[in-house]
Specification:
- The complex is a heterotrimer of chains A (350), B (289) and C (232).
- By secondary structure, chain A is mainly alpha-helical.
- In chain A, β1 and β2 form a beta hairpin.
- The radius of gyration of chain A is 23 Å and the shape is globular.
- The model of chain A has no long low-confidence stretch (mean pLDDT 83).
- Chain B is mainly α and 289 residues long.
- Chain B is 74% helix and 2% strand.
- Chain B contains 11 helices and 2 strands; from the N terminus they run ααααββααααααα.
- Chain B has a two-stranded antiparallel ribbon.
- In chain B, α1 runs antiparallel to α8, α1 packs across α9 and α2 runs parallel beside α4.
- Chain C is α/β, with parallel strands linked by helices.
- Chain C has 10 helices and 10 strands.
- The model of chain C has no long low-confidence stretch (mean pLDDT 90).
- The chains are: A mainly alpha (350), B mainly alpha (289), C alpha/beta (232).
- Chains A and B meet through α5, α11 and α13 of A and α3, α4, α9 and α11 of B.
C-alpha cells in the first residue's frame, strides 16, 4: 500500500496475463507462414524444394522433442535414434505389410514408438545424469541389433517403402510434404500446449528441483515418463517421415547416433528450454548442413566446437540472444504480472 | 569344453574392459562427471601408439611410456579449460560438452587417419599362447592385458585409500566446500583426477590398439563397454569395475560361442538384466558420498 | 595485537543482506564469543572470515593483510581454520582419515594425530569408524580435531553445541582450554549463551546482522545480554 498524492491510502492492482503483444505477433506470423507453406507445392516450391523442406521439418520435430526431454524434463538422452528407427520401420511395416497406406501408417508408427518407449522407461529410469545418457544409447543399440535379426523387416540390409508405388512423383512428393508440414505444426503445438498446461508447470518445477517439486505434489516419475513417451512418439513421427521422404529404411542410417548428435546441436545452437529455440536451431543446422557438408569430417569438427562454445558461453542459444532472454515470447508458456491502475481505499472497486 | 575356453577368454577380456573403465569410474567418483569422450580418447591413445611405433620403430609396450604422460597432460588441460568451466554451469553442461568433444575427436581422427582399420603390430606376441589343458589355451597378450588391468585397478585403489592426494580426492567427492576449508583446491584435485584418468586411458588405448583392428569410430563401442563394466560392477567400487568387466567379457565371449556375431548383444542383455534386477550393480560402494 | 580485523563489512546472499556494516577485532590469543539468535548473521560472519562468502563492502584483514578476495583454500595456509556449521565431516572417510585430511595443509605446530587423540580420547577408540556411522558427539570432536590439524592461528567454531546433548557439549567445551593454552586465537559462535560466556574473554552479540553489544562477560549483566539478544 502506498499513499497517493491526495493523502488517501491506495492499493496497487495487478492483473495476470498469459500472452504478450509479441506473442500475438508470433501467432499471426506463424499462421501466415503455415498458409504460405501449404499452398507452396501449387505455386512456388519445386519437388526438390519440397523434399528439402521435409528434411527441415524433420529437424524441427527432432529438435522440439530433444528439447522437451532435456530442456523441460531434465533428461539427456543419446538414444533417441532408437525411436526414429522404430518409426521408420513402423511406417513401412504398417503401410506395406498391414496395407493401411502411408498416411494412416504414421500414427501407427508413433504408437509403436510410444509403447516401446513406455516399456523401456522402466529400465532407463534406474539411471540418471550422464549414466542415463549412455544407458539410452545402449538401449538404442540393443533395439537396432534386435531389429536387424528380424527377416520380415529386411534384417541387415533394410527395407523399402512400397506403398507409394504407382503414384506420380509429384503427387508422392507433395503428399509427403503436406504430411510433414502437418506433422511439424502438430508436434510443435502439442509440445507447446503440454508445456503451457498444469502438467507443464510441473515439468519446469521438476527440471529445477525434483525434490521440491515432489513435495508440491508433482509426481516426478510419472511426469518424466509422460515426457519420455511423448518425445519418443515425436521421434517416431520424424522417423516415419524420414522413411516416407527417402523411401528406403536402412538400419545403420536410421538408428545412427548421428541423428542424436544432430538433435543436440539443433537444441544447443537454438536455445534450450524454449519452444522457439529448437525451431531457430533447426533452421541454422539445416543451412549449415547445406553449405558445409562438402567439408566432410571438418564439418562435424566445426559443429562440435560451436556446440561446446554455445553450452559454455551462450547457454540460452541464438533464440535467447534474439529474444533478449525471454522478453520476447512467441509461444508464451508462463504467467506475467501486469500492473493495473491503482485504486483508492474505499472506492467502488476495492 | 569350448564353453570353458570361452569363459577363460571372457575373463581375460574383462581385464581390458576394467583397464578401459578405470578412468571413467575415477572421474565419476571424484567429480560426478560422466566423460562421454572417454571412448574417443582411448582411440586417440591407440593412434598415438600406432604412430609412435610406425614412425620410430619402438616396441609397442615402450610407446606406453610416452603415450601415458601425453594423455595425462591432455587430461589436465581439458579439465582446467573446458571441464571445470562446464562443471560450474548448468547441470546438462558437462554431458553436452564431453559429447561435443567426442564428436570433435572422432572426426579429427577421421581426417587424420581415414576410416581404414589399423592395428599396432606386436609380431608373434599377438598369436602366441600357453596351453593350460588340451582344450584351453590362454593367449599371452590377453594374459598380459589382464594382469595389467588388475594391477592398475589395485594401484588406483591403493592410491585413493592411502595417499594424501587420494584422500583429498575422496574428501572433495564427499563435500567440495568442506574440503576447501581444509585447504584443498578443488580445481587442482579435479585436474589431477582427469590427468590420472586419461593416463590410464592411455595404457588401455595402446593395449586395445594391439589387441584389435581399430578405426576412429571405435570410440563409441569403447565408451559403451567401459560404461557397462562400471554399471554391472557397481558405482563407486573399483574392484566392482573389475568384476563388471569380467562379467561383461564372459557374456560377450559366451554369447559369441552360442550365437555367432551376437556376442556384443548378449553383453548388452546382461547389462540390461543387471539394470533391471540389481540397479546399484553387483558390488556397489556401501557409503553414499 | 589484533590478529583479525573485520572492517565494516556488508555480506549478501543474492539480494538478501545478512550483515550490515559489521566491525569486529580479535586479538591474538584471546577467545571471542559471538552470540545471537537464529539468523543474526553469526555463521555468515564465520564463513566470510573463512572465505566461503565475500563481503560486498568492507574488508577482512588477517595479521594486517587484506584477505577479503582470497579463496577459502588459500586462507588455511595463513592459519585460518573453520569448523563448519553442522560438522560436515566426510561421510565416506574414517574419523582418522578425516583428521588426516585436516592436516592436508601442513603448518608447524603442536597439533598432530597424537595430540588430537589426547585432547579427544573418544576419537582414539573410534578412529576406524566411518564418518557416516559416527554419533553427533564423535562428529563434532572430529570436526574440531580436523580443524586443529592445520595448526591454525585462528580457530573458528560454528555452532558446536547444535543438536548435541548437554553432557556431550560439556565434554567438547572441556577441550577448549587445551586449545587456547597453545596460544590459538578462538572465535566461537554459539546459540548456547551460558557455554559461550563460560569460555570467552570477550563477547559480541549480533542482532539481524549488526553488533548490538560488546564487552567482557564479567562486565555484562543478564539483562543487558537478554535485551541485546532478543532486540528488546
Amino acid at each position: 500500500m502506498s499513499k497517493s498524492l491526495a493523502g488517501a491510502a491506495v492499493t496497487q492492482t495487478v492483473k495476470v496475463r498469459r500472452s504478450t503483444r509479441s506473442s500475438y505477433v508470433g501467432v499471426a506470423v506463424f499462421a501466415i507462414a503455415i498458409a504460405a507453406l501449404a499452398i507452396g507445392p501449387f505455386a512456388f516450391l519445386t519437388k526438390g524444394n519440397q523434399q528439402n523442406l521435409v528434411t527441415l521439418f524433420i529437424y524441427i520435430i527432432l529438435g522440439t522433442m530433444w528439447n522437451l526431454l532435456a530442456g523441460y524434463g531434465g533428461m539427456v538422452s543419446i538414444g533417441q535414434q532408437a525411436f526414429i528407427g522404430i518409426g521408420a520401420y513402423g511406417i513401412v511395416y504398417a503401410a506395406d505389410n498391414l496395407g493401411v497406406g502411408p498416411i494412416i501408417a504414421v500414427p501407427i508408427a508413433m504408437v509403436i514408438s510410444g509403447a516401446i518407449a513406455y516399456l523401456v522407461s522402466f529400465l532407463a529410469f534406474r539411471l540418471s545424469g550422464g549414466y542415463f545418457a549412455i544407458g539410452t544409447w545402449v538401449i538404442a543399440e540393443v533395439i537396432k541389433l534386435v531389429t536387424t535379426q528380424i527377416t520380415a523387416l529386411g534384417a541387415g540390409s533394410g527395407i523399402s517403402l512400397t506403398a507409394f508405388a504407382g503414384a506420380k512423383p509429384e503427387i508422392r512428393i507433395a503428399t509427403v510434404y503436406w504430411m510433414a508440414l502437418a506433422s511439424v505444426v502438430v508436434a510443435v503445438l502439442v509440445t507447446y500446449l503440454l508445456i503451457r498446461s498444469r502438467l507443464g508447470a510441473g515439468f519446469t518445477a521438476l527440471r529445477d528441483d525434483p525434490t521440491a517439486a515432489a513435495t508440491l505434489g508433482v509426481h516426478v516419475t510419472r511426469s518424466k515418463r509422460v515426457i519420455w513417451v511423448a518425445a519418443a512418439m515425436g521421434c517416431g513421427l520424424a522417423g516415419a517421415l524420414l522413411a516416407a521422404n527417402t523411401l528406403r529404411v536402412q538400419p545403420d542410417s536410421v538408428y545412427s547416433v548421428q541423428l542424436t548428435a544432430a538433435m543436440i546441436f539443433i537444441v544447443v545452437i537454438g536455445g534450450i528450454g524454449t519452444i522457439e529455440g529448437p525451431i531457430v536451431g533447426a533452421i541454422v543446422y539445416f543451412a549449415l548442413e547445406q553449405y558445409l557438408s562438402d567439408l566432410g569430417a571438418w564439418y562435424l569438427v566445426i559443429l562440435g566446437s560451436v556446440a561446446i562454445i554455445m553450452v559454455l558461453f551462450l547457454p540460452q542459444g541464438l533464440w535467447g540472444l534474439l529474444s533478449g532472454k525471454g522478453r520476447i515470447q512467441l509461444f508464451p508458456t508462463g504467467y506475467r504480472l501486469i500492473s493495473g491502475p491503482p485504486i483508492a481505499e474505499g472506492s467502488k472497486e476495492s | 569344453m569350448e564353453w570353458a575356453n570361452a569363459i577363460v577368454q571372457g575373463v581375460l577380456l574383462g581385464g581390458l574392459y576394467a583397464l578401459l573403465a578405470a578412468g571413467l569410474s575415477l572421474m565419476f567418483g571424484v567429480m560426478r562427471l560422466v566423460n562421454l569422450a572417454h571412448g574417443a580418447l582411448a582411440i586417440v591413445a591407440a593412434y598415438a601408439g600406432l604412430v609412435l611405433v610406425q614412425k620410430t620403430g619402438m616396441p609397442p609396450f615402450a610407446s606406453i611410456v610416452i603415450v601415458v604422460p601425453l594423455m595425462a597432460i591432455l587430461g589436465w588441460v581439458l579439465q582446467r579449460t573446458l571441464l571445470n568451466t562446464a562443471l560450474n554451469r548448468q547441470a546438462l553442461a558437462p554431458i553436452l560438452v564431453t559429447f561435443g568433444l567426442a564428436v570433435i575427436i572422432q572426426n579429427l581422427l577421421l581426417e587424420l587417419f581415414t576410416a581404414d582399420n589399423q592395428s599396432i603390430d606386436v609380431g608373434s606376441l599377438a598369436s602366441s599362447s600357453i596351453q593350460i589343458t588340451p582344450d584351453i589355451a590362454i593367449g599371452v597378450f590377453p594374459l598380459i592385458t589382464f594382469i595389467v588391468g588388475v594391477l592398475v585397478i589395485g594401484l588406483l585403489q591403493q592410491y585413493l585409500a592411502r595417499t594424501a592426494t587420494g584422500r583429498a580426492m575422496r574428501a572433495t567427492s564427499d563435500d567440495r566446500e568442506a574440503a576447501e576449508l581444509m585447504g584443498i583446491d578443488n580445481k587442482y584435485v579435479y585436474s589431477l583426477a582427469t590427468a590420472i584418468s586419461l593416463g590410464l586411458v592411455g595404457i588401455a588405448g595402446v593395449f586395445l590398439g594391439i589387441r584389435t583392428q581399430f578405426n576412429p569410430t571405435f570410440g563409441d563401442a569403447t565408451l559403451i563397454f567401459a560404461f557397462e563394466a562400471v554399471i554391472i560392477g557397481g558405482l563407486g567400487s573399483l574392484w566392482g569395475t573389475l568384476a563388471g568387466g569380467m562379467i561383461l567379457g564372459i557374456a560377450q565371449t559366451v554369447g559369441a560361442q552360442a550365437f555367432p556375431s551376437s556376442g556384443v548383444l548378449l553383453g548388452h542383455v546382461v547389462f540390461l538384466l543387471v539394470l533391471a534386477f540389481r540397479p546399484t550393480g553387483l558390488f556397489p560402494k556401501v557409503v553414499n558420498g | 595485537m589484533a590478529l583479525l580485523e573485520v572492517d565494516a563489512i556488508d555480506v549478501h546472499y543474492g539480494d538478501f543482506q545478512a550483515i550490515y556494516g559489521l566491525s569486529i577485532t580479535v586479538d591474538e590469543g584471546e577467545t571471542l564469543a559471538v552470540i545471537g539468535a537464529n539468523g543474526a548473521g553469526k555463521s555468515t560472519l564465520l564463513k566470510t572470515i573463512a572465505g566461503i562468502n565475500r563481503p560486498r563492502v568492507g574488508e577482512v584483514r588477517f595479521d594486517g593483510a587484506n584477505i577479503s578476495g582470497l579463496a577459502a583454500h588459500r586462507r588455511v595456509p595463513l592459519g585460518i581454520s573453520l569448523t563448519p556449521e553442522g560438522r560436515r565431516i566426510f561421510p565416506s572417510l574414517t574419523l582418522e582419515e578425516n583428521l588426516l585430511v585436516g592436516g592436508h595443509t601442513k603448518r608447524p605446530g603442536y597439533w598432530n594425530l597424537t595430540t588430537v587423540y589426547e585432547t579427544f580420547p573418544l576419537l582414539a577408540d573410534r578412529r576406524s569408524r566411518l564418518g557416516v556411522h559416527a554419533s553427533g558427539g564423535e562428529q563434532q570432536a572430529t570436526a574440531i580435531g580436523r580443524a586443529l590439524m592445520s595448526n591454525p592461528r585462528l580457530l573458528l567454531l560454528d555452532e558446536v553445541s547444535l543438536g548435541l546433548a548437554p553432557i556431550v557439549v560439556e565434554n567438547i567445551y572441556a577441550a577448549l582450554p587445551n586449545i587456547s593454552a597453545q596460544g590459538t586465537t578462538v572465535l566461537v559462535v554459539e546459540q548456547d549463551v551460558n557455554q559461550a560466556l563460560k569460555v570467552a574473554n570477550r563477547v559480541h552479540c549480533l542482532l539481524e546482522g549488526r553488533s548490538v553489544l560488546e564487552g567482557k562477560p564479567a562486565e555484562l549483566s543478564r539483562e543487558q545480554i537478554a535485551s541485546a539478544y532478543f532486540g528488546i
